[in-house]
Amino acid sequence: MQFTESPILELKRQVVDDIRKTVIAFANTQGGTIYIGVDDDGTILGVENLDAEMLRISNMIRDSIKPDVTMFVSYSAENVKGRDVIKVTVQKGTESPYYLQGKGLRPEGVFVRQGTSSVPATENAIHRMIVETDGDSYEQMRSLNQDLTFASATEEFNNRGVPFDANHFKTLQLVNEDGVYSNLALLVSDQCSHTLKAAVFEGTDKSIFKDRREFSGSLFKQLNDAFAYISQYNRVRAEFSGLHRIDKKDYPEEALREALLNVLVHRDYSYSSSTLISIFDDRIEFLSIGGLVKGVTLADILLGISITRNERLARIFYRLALIEAYGTGIPKILKSYEGFVRQPEFQVTDNAFKITLPNQNEQTTYGDLTPEEQCIIELAESTGLLKRKDVERELSISQTMAGRILKAMVEQGLLEITGRGKNTAYVLPRTEN
C-alpha cells in the first residue's frame, strides 16, 4: 500500500495535538482519512501500544472538538508491511462549523482543508457554514463571538423581577444544546455589534447638525439610553384656555416608546448598518433597517397584524413586559395621536421601514392672521375638530359673528368643513411634513 497525502488523506508519525485540527478540517469540508504511524513521505513507522493510542485519540477528539463530532469519526487498526497503524476515518459533519472548544467560532478555532493542509477558515467561510447549518434566521445562528457578558441584560431582568442566569439561557434560547451562544445572545449581550445612531438637526431638514450620539452595547442599554436622549427633546409647552393652563408635550411618550421598541425589535440584524433616529424641529423619524417580513403589507401592519422577524427577541421583550403583545405597537402609536391634527406617517421600502412622529406643538405658519383667527387656529390644533359653538364660547362672540369668521377662514383655505347640518364641524387642512 502506497501512502501519499492529498486533500482527503493526512499522514502522522504519531499521536499529536494537531490531529484535532485535521479532524475539524475534514468534518468541515468533504471528509477524509488520517493514518497514524506513517511518515510524511509514506514510510511505515508503526504505532506502539495500539489500544492505548486509539483510546487517547478518541478522548482527545471527544473532549476538544465542538459540536460533538464523534458520530462522524471511526477508528480501526491495520497491519501494513508487518507494522500496526491507526486509521481514523472522518465523514463530513452535519453541524459545521466544527471548532476547537478552547478557541471558539473564530479563525484560530475553525479549520478547513486546503490542498494537503488544514488551515484556519476565514470569517466569511465560517459565516457561510453557519448559514448552511443553522438556516438564514439571524437570531438562531451561532454567534461568531462566544466571549459574551450580560451585565446590562442582568440589570434589566433584575429590575423587572424576571430571573436571568445561566440556568435560564436555554429556555430563552440564548444557547443551543452544546452551550454555544446564538446571535440572539449576542444582541442582548454587552458585546452587541449593532448600534443605534441619533442626530438632532436645526429646522426641518438635514443641512445643520446640532448634536449627534451613537448608542452601543446590549439592546437593553441602547433602548434605555436612546429613550433618555430623545426625551430631552420632548419639550413641554404651555397653552391657556381661559384661566386654565394646559401643559402639552411635543410628542406622546407612548408613541416615542413604541416607535423606539419597533426599530430595535423588528429590524433586520443580518445587515450591519445602524438604526437611525433623526430629530427635527417639527418631527422625529425612526428608520429601521430591513423592510417588512415577506407577505406582510403596510396595511396589515396598521391593522395590527404582526409576523415577527425576530421572534425569539420579541419573546424576551414580551417576557420583560417591554411589549404587551405582538402587533400592538403601531396601533398604540396611532391611538396616542387621536384628536391631533397631524398624524404619524409610515413608509416602507424593500430594505427599510420609517416611522415619522409629528411635533404637535410646532406651529404652522398661516401668514397674517387676526387675533380671532389665530385663536381659532390654535383651538383647532389642540382639539383636532371644532364646532361653531366652540368658537362662540372661546371668543365670547355671537353666533352670527362666529359663523362669519368661520366662513371667511374656509374661503381663505385656513379651515375645512366636515359633516353637514347639525354635524357641521371645522378642521385644519392636512399638510405634509
Concise synopsis of the structure shown:
With 433 residues, this protein is α+β, with helices and mostly antiparallel strands. The protein has helices spanning 18-28, 50-64, 123-134, 151-159, 183-188, 219-231, 253-265, 298-303, 311-319, 329-336, 371-383, 388-395, 399-411; strands spanning 9-12, 32-36, 65-66, 73-80, 83-90, 99-100, 111-114, 117-120, 196-201, 209-215, 236-241, 244-249, 275-279, 283-289, 345-348, 352-358, 416-418, 425-427.
Features:
3 domains, 18 strands, 433 residues, Arc Repressor Mutant, subunit A, Methyltransferase, Cobalt-precorrin-4 Transmethylase, Domain 2
Question: Would you mind describing this structure in some detail?
Answer:
- The chain is of the alpha+beta class and 433 residues long.
- The protein folds into three domains: 9-134, 2-Layer Sandwich (Methyltransferase, Cobalt-precorrin-4 Transmethylase, Domain 2); 196-358, Heat Shock Protein 90 (2-Layer Sandwich), CATH 3.30.565.60; 371-427, Arc Repressor Mutant, subunit A (Orthogonal Bundle), CATH 1.10.10.10.
- Helices cover 31% and strands 21% of the residues.
- The protein has 13 helices and 18 strands.
- It has helices at 18-28, 50-64, 123-134, 151-159, 183-188, 219-231, 253-265, 298-303, 311-319, 329-336, 371-383, 388-395, 399-411; strands at residues 9-12, 32-36, 65-66, 73-80, 83-90, 99-100, 111-114, 117-120, 196-201, 209-215, 236-241, 244-249, 275-279, 283-289, 345-348, 352-358, 416-418, 425-427.
- The protein has a six-stranded mixed sheet with strand order 10-9-13-14-16-15, with helices on one face. A four-stranded mixed sheet has the order 1-2-5-4. Strands 3-6 form a two-stranded antiparallel ribbon.
- α6 (219-231) packs antiparallel against α7.
- The longest helix is centred in the N-terminal third of the chain and has 15 residues, at 50-64.
